[in-house]
């Protein structure tokens, strides 16, 4: 049975190469709070209005996640041990073919596999926090990656280390949006179901893996996860999810209002997820 660790897991399950990330999380949380308090002390006025036209009405799956009246910068989170951006070994961002919308298949000289699972199309809208979230970030770039339905990460996990599926980059359009076609990620021990993303100032920055603007994660709502994980291929995710909650997850437990996606659809037809990212 494959084991996969992104951030914090039970002490007796932590691999040595993951300990630095697990130990760093409380420090990152404290730094985030320090920055917030420093802003308040300086007399900064809270930003208002961080919603996008097509993500302003949340479904029952994520009530309240996209209806906040405040414009809040998306929290900075760990990239985890499997980023593929050159910070931990392999750098997929410099490979021809990484700029794409459909990330279900591997590309280039890899094994050429396809990730199986319930279809998921997700749209990220990048907005300028300094504008009160009213201005889209046109011409920025977003790199996304996530695990497959068995919890494995391409480029790293045994059995799929020769694949590079479920990874891709796109440039934001005039609305600040990028849309990726993928599959619903599984749930592995110790982490709530999520999708990683990095925002760059431009496509050139992304494909040279320089000048990251923001690194964070998208969370998926529990009711949708429960329905997806009841289908074939996601069996191991059922028990793993049952041991977790958003409030206990090592990344999302300090707040997930800006990270919980609005998800619509069905297992039969596939799902769509949307999230607005203020940077």
Architecture overview:
The chain is α+β, with helices and mostly antiparallel strands and 279 residues long. The chain contains four helices and eleven strands. A hairpin with a 6-residue loop joins strand 3 and strand 4. The longest helix is centred in the N-terminal third of the chain and has 23 residues. The chain is globular, with a radius of gyration of 18 Å.
Brief account:
It is built from 4 helices and 11 strands, in the order αββββββββαβααββ.
Helix content: 10-25%
Shape: globular
What is the terminal-to-terminal distance? Answer: 39 Å
**Number of H- or I-type helical stretches:** 4
Could you list the spans in which at least 5 consecutive residues all have pLDDT below 50? 1-5, 7-68
Percentage of residues in DSSP E strands: 15-25%
Question: What is the string of helix and strand elements?
Answer: HEEEEEEEEHEHHEE
Which properties best describe this structure?
22% strand; four-stranded antiparallel sheet; alpha+beta; five-stranded mixed sheet; 279 residues; 11 strands
């Amino acid at each position: 049975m494959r084991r996969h660790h992104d951030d914090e897991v039970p002490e007796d399950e932590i691999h040595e190469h993951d300990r630095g990330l697990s130990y760093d999380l409380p420090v990152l949380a404290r730094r985030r709070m320090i920055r917030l308090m420093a802003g308040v002390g300086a007399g900064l006025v809270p930003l208002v209005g961080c919603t996008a036209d097509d993500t302003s009405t949340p479904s029952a799956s994520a009530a309240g996640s996209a209806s906040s009246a405040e414009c809040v910068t998306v929290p900075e989170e760990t990239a985890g041990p499997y980023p593929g951006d050159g910070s931990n070994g392999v750098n997929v961002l410099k490979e021809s073919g990484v700029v794409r919308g459909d990330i279900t298949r591997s590309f280039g000289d890899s094994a050429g596999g396809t990730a199986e699972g319930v279809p998921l199309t997700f749209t990220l809208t990048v907005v300028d926090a300094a504008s009160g979230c009213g201005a889209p970030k046109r011409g920025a770039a977003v790199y996304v990656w996530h695990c497959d339905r068995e919890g494995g990460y391409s480029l790293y996990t045994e059995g799929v280390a020769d694949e590079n599926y479920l990874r891709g980059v796109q440039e934001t359009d005039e609305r600040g949006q990028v849309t990726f076609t993928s599959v619903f990620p599984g749930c592995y021990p110790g982490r709530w179901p999520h999708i990683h993303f990095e925002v760059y100032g431009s496509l050139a920055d992304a494909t040279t893996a320089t000048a990251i603007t923001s690194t964070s994660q998208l969370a998926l709502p529990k009711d949708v996860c429960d329905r997806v994980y009841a289908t074939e291929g996601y069996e191991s995710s059922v028990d793993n999810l049952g041991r977790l909650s958003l409030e206990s997850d090592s990344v999302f437990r300090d707040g997930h209002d800006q990270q919980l996606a609005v998800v619509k659809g069905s297992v039969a037809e596939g799902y769509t997820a949307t999230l607005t990212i203020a940077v």
